[in-house]
Amino acid sequence: MRIVSGKYKGRRISAPKKLPVRPTTDMAKESLFNILNNQYYFDDISVLDLFSGTGNISYEFASRGTEQITAVDSHHGCIKFINETAESFEMAITTIKSDVFKFLERSQQQHTIIFADPPYDFPTEEFAKIPQLIFENKLLETDGILIVEHSKHTDLSHLDHYTHSRSYGGNMFSFFE
To answer: Fewest CB atoms within 10 Å of the CB: 11, 86, 105, 122?
Structure first.
């Protein structure tokens, strides 16, 4: 995987093969950030990266100037890798090792952008819990957005706060406001 833009543009990051991850493709990531670039100044926002895996999305935000980034994952190896990578690039990424749903139930901090990339094989009920907990606990700022990455075979359009989806190959991003 590589960082597609910003201070660290072009830098390659190689995650250990033993991590249980499926990083967002460079094409999908670049398309997503083109959308976000038209809505936000990256140095003025707060980002929450859920099911952060390798930290791919967190690194992209950090490379573009975001300084308030929290990455949450339940896997010790993922958190360790993000910490090591962020330190080597001197990126300000706070990591939290936690079950994402438990974290969302406890959290009280609001964010401008919340990005969630759960396993593609999650049942629809599990996908539905993500926006439900975020909106019930008011974790988005007023002009904030929740983006959930999922397979093109998963339909989230029936969920509350859903606004639209974008498809990039086999990847989909569903947006909630």
So the answer is: 105
Q: For residue 41, how many other CB atoms are within 10 A of its CB? A: 11
* pLDDT tens for each residue of 60-75: 999 999 999 999 999 9
Supply the pTM of this predicted model: 0.95
Range of the domain at 104: 26-121+128-176
Q: Coil, strand, or helix at residue 142?
A: strand
CA distance 58 to 68: 10
Residue 13 belongs to a domain: no
State the CATH number of the domain containing residue 108: 3.40.50.150
Low-confidence spans in the chain with pLDDT less than 70: none
Per DSSP, the three-state class of 115 is strand
Q: Is residue 171 in a domain?
A: yes
Tell me the C-alpha distance between 58 and 77, whole Å: 16
